[in-house]
Amino acid sequence: MSQLAKQERRSTRARRELDTEMIMTEFEEREESVPLTKHYHLSHSFHNAVSLPAFLNDHSGDPAIKDFIPNLKDHLLARLRRLEYDGDEWIFASDERHSVQFVNLNHVSMPKQLQVNFTTYDIRCDKDTLHSGQGDTIMMYSREQGTDAHPFWYAQLIRAWVFCIYYEGEEHDMDVVWVRWLGVEPRYQWGIGKARLPKVGFILDSESGAFGFVDPALVIRACHLIPVFTEGRTDSLLRRGPSLACPNDEVDDWASYYVNIFADRDLFARFSHVGVGHEAQYPFLGKMSEEDISADFEEETLQVPDNKGPPREYEANTMDDAVGPLNDSDDEDDDGSGDCTDLESSLDEDGSDRDSNSEGDNGDAYDLIL
Hints:
Layout: H1 2-32, E1 40-42, E2 49-50, H2 52-58, H3 68-80, H4 94-97, E3 101-102, E4 108-109, E5 113-119, E6 125-131, E7 137-141, E8 152-167, E9 170-184, E10 199-202, E11 211-214, E12 221-223, E13 225-227, E14 233-234, E15 253-254, E16 257-259, H5 265-272, H6 290-293, E17 301-303, E18 313-315, H7 319-322, H8 334-337
Antiparallel strand pairs: 1-5, 2-4, 3-8, 5-6, 7-8, 7-12, 8-9, 9-10, 9-11, 10-16, 13-16, 14-15, 17-18
């Protein structure tokens, strides 16, 4: 009996130490996810460091890591040379790739959380927190041109990395997001006037653009995808079985997804082309215009019921007349939001951001990119 008691005490002590270590790790990551003056923040903890060669060797049969190092070097080299990002990764020769040297691949930081700060439609500060390997989805501005171009690009977050790079005599710490791309459904019409949500699906794993790397500075925010349940699941997009690209140990994918543009008011404002906090994105939008949203209101008057006397009519010619304020707290904190400057238009074409300062508490408005 005494031996059983000793063994139980050892097990209890070890379990308490493990729980304490996990709590400290979560506390460190939670403490680091505080800054709101930067567009994004990656959690840093010594517990998250991995050996990249061992990591790739453990997943050697995974299609997601095909040509991982060459593609990663192409991405890093394009950013180091400040080349414009248009969605297609630059491809460099082998001697050019050799100019990018990794510092200590046996200790590479792999953050578990990506916090993205953004400016909402009503010029207030908000944030999304995404977790690596949990199926969280990001959205970016589309670089496509034309009347049929979709305003945004979508990708599923696989992992986030922080690499120490030696290039042309200098060391650079570079944040990278490893993603699995989703493509827009071909010949699919969507919009409020058509009462249909945008529809997307994962790119076939055999195509070169199925997986890629993204600068976190180009991420707008998280988005919400709804599986198209009627189309079921499939293993034709990615070979059946465990993969880093499949969250929660799933072995196949949903055939397609709807983009939930009604997940919150800010997402709706981005897709509907309204909100002073989104002026920087307006040149990218060509799918849903103000006329599309107010199509049901045109050539129509709204009458207020249950009024005594002659009926009062309100002409609904514009969105401002037809739709009331989108923010329930517009008449609150007037002095806190009046001094906020919208810096979303300061986003450079290459996605880089500029330094910005914040004022006030969380309830005040902040100067933020995006």
